[in-house]
């Protein structure tokens, strides 16, 4: 089943992968830019802690909608058009959110941005998986996560710079608008760049084949993917795609709980990726660190340092994902996240309250919490962050890939929404409870990977159509015998 892959990485496929991954940059930027604005939004619109959580999480509802419909639209109109539509929605959301005059208006534009994020979260990994040679698919797929974390870093850094220039996120910066509004409008710049880049990308060869544009598909495979036997690859794609444009949820039906096992694996990978609480770090870190005694400038700096950690360790994933495989990285990540989250829960259990009722970490416990947060981010960035996106782009058979990826991505955004929405409530119960819950999810994810997640390293996308999942491994039946292939 495993073929001799292309020996060297074609620079052109690297270029178009980076272009597609710009959607991930906007994904990270737009979803995290609210970090520096949360406190200001609460003050300006007089929001309670619970409703503040709903405002922050409102974009994630749009993400689920965008993820759900992106696959079908991409099959009908092409991957590139979905990218262009996403760029336009990012631009509209950036301007609309920055100029919001009421909380419902703010939420509306955040939801519009969420639709763009959701669509980008589906189309980028699918497109990258479809143009990348099998040997380099893990590394190229990981560029999506690298773009996401760079977007998060850019958002946090721009938040910090704008707040410092204005003298605080609540202070007026330019044209009578507060700094927190400019934080949102800064997203307009990468949105325009993404739209222009998307228009210059070649269409996915698999989309071109099932639209009977074989000559164009052959050119993309030859020029960008470095494919030497183009006719053979096109024939394989034709056999595997079936009637992709007519995919529906009905095609995912299976005997276990109504869905195929591989679909459940994709859904649970998505849910565990969010239920370990990674986005609490990026959405609420400023508020979190201020609540335990950090000044606003210190909280911004701490969040930026955490974001740099995220970037550095995503590079680790890119280096190792095609060398040691997806499964081992996930196992290491689950173990490391559990230990670091448990350390944070223990540290927060020692907190005392000041005169204003805010938690304060005494002595070395503040350092323990900060170290735990950065270790957690490091383990996530090197493993579950990029590897889940790689797996979602490659684990499903061609005949169901678009709709299965849409379902898994929608589940991811709903899980993200749930965690983001509940954190303020969890924090009211106690940060020990919150981080204890996330640690428990990390431990459960370890057992899930051990028993259910197969290895996809080195497999062609077309191979996924001729294998089954049994006991966490891919198997194929040849001459009446079951053979384990990963």
Kindly describe this structure.
This protein is mainly alpha-helical and 486 residues long. The protein has a single domain, classed as MFS general substrate transporter like domains (Growth Hormone, Chain: A), CATH 1.20.1250.20. Helices cover 71% and strands 5% of the residues. Strands 5-6-7 form a three-stranded antiparallel β-sheet, with no helix packed on it. Strands 1-2 form a two-stranded antiparallel sheet. A two-stranded antiparallel sheet has the order 3-4. The protein is globular, with a radius of gyration of 22 Å. Mean pLDDT is 78; it is low at 1-7.
Layout of secondary structure:
Blueprint: H1 11-32, H2 38-44, H3 49-77, H4 79-98, H5 103-131, H6 137-166, E1 172-174, E2 177-178, H7 179-185, H8 188-199, H9 205-210, H10 214-223, H11 230-241, H12 261-275, H13 278-291, H14 296-324, H15 326-348, E3 352-353, E4 359-360, H16 365-382, H17 384-394, H18 401-429, H19 431-452, E5 468-470, E6 473-478, E7 481-484
Antiparallel strand pairs: 1-2, 3-4, 5-6, 6-7
Helix pairs in contact: 1-4, 1-5, 1-6, 1-8, 3-4, 3-5, 3-18, 4-5, 4-7, 4-8, 5-6, 5-17, 5-18, 6-7, 6-14, 6-17, 12-17, 12-18, 12-19, 13-14, 14-15, 14-16, 15-16, 15-17, 15-19, 16-17, 18-19
């Amino acid at each position: 089943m495993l073929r001799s892959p292309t020996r060297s990485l074609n620079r052109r496929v690297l270029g178009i992968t980076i272009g597609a991954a710009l959607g991930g940059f906007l994904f990270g930027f737009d979803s995290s830019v609210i970090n520096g604005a949360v406190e200001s939004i609460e003050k300006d619109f007089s929001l309670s802690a619970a409703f503040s959580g709903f405002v922050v999480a409102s974009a994630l509802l749009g993400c689920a909608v965008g993820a759900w419909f992106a696959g079908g639209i991409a099959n009908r109109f092409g991957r590139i058009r979905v990218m262009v539509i996403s760029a336009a929605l990012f631009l509209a959301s950036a301007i609309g959110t920055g100029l919001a005059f009421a909380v419902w208006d703010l939420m509306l534009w955040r939801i519009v941005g969420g639709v763009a994020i959701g669509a980008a979260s589906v189309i980028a990994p699918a497109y990258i998986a479809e143009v990348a040679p099998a040997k380099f698919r893990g590394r190229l797929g990981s560029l999506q996560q690298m773009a996401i974390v760079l977007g998060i870093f850019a958002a946090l850094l721009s938040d910090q710079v704008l707040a410092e220039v204005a003298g605080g996120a609540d202070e007026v910066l330019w044209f009578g608008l507060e700094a927190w509004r400019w934080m949102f409008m800064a997203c307009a710049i990468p949105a325009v760049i993404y739209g222009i880049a998307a228009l210059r990308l070649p269409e996915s060869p698999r989309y071109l084949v099932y639209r009977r544009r074989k000559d164009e598909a052959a050119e993309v495979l030859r020029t960008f993917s470095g494919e030497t036997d183009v006719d053979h690859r096109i024939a394989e794609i034709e056999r595997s795609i079936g009637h992709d444009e007519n995919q529906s949820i009905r095609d995912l039906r299976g005997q276990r709980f109504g869905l195929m096992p591989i679909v459940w694996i994709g859904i649970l990978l998505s849910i565990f990726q969010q239920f370990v609480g990674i986005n609490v770090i990026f959405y609420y870190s400023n508020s979190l660190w201020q609540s335990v005694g950090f000044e606003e400038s210190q909280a911004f700096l701490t969040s930026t340092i955490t974001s740099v950690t995220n970037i550095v360790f995503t590079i680790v994933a890119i280096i190792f994902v095609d060398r040691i495989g997806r499964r081992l990285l996930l196992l290491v990540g689950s173990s490391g996240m559990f230990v670091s989250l448990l350390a944070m829960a223990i540290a927060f259990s020692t907190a005392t309250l000041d005169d204003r009722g805010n938690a304060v970490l005494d002595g070395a416990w503040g350092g323990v919490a900060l170290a735990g947060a950065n270790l957690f981010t490091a383990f996530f960035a090197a493993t579950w962050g990029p590897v889940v996106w790689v797996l979602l782009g490659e684990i499903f058979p061609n005949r169901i890939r678009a709709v299965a990826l849409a379902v898994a991505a929608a589940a991811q955004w709903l899980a993200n929404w749930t965690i983001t929405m509940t954190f303020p409530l969890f924090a009211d119960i106690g940060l020990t409870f919150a981080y204890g819950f996330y640690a428990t999810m990390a431990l459960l994810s370890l057992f899930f990977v051990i028993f259910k997640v197969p290895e996809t390293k080195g497999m062609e996308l077309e191979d996924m159509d001729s294998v089954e999942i049994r006991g966490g491994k891919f198997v194929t039946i040849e001459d009446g015998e079951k053979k384990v292939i990963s």
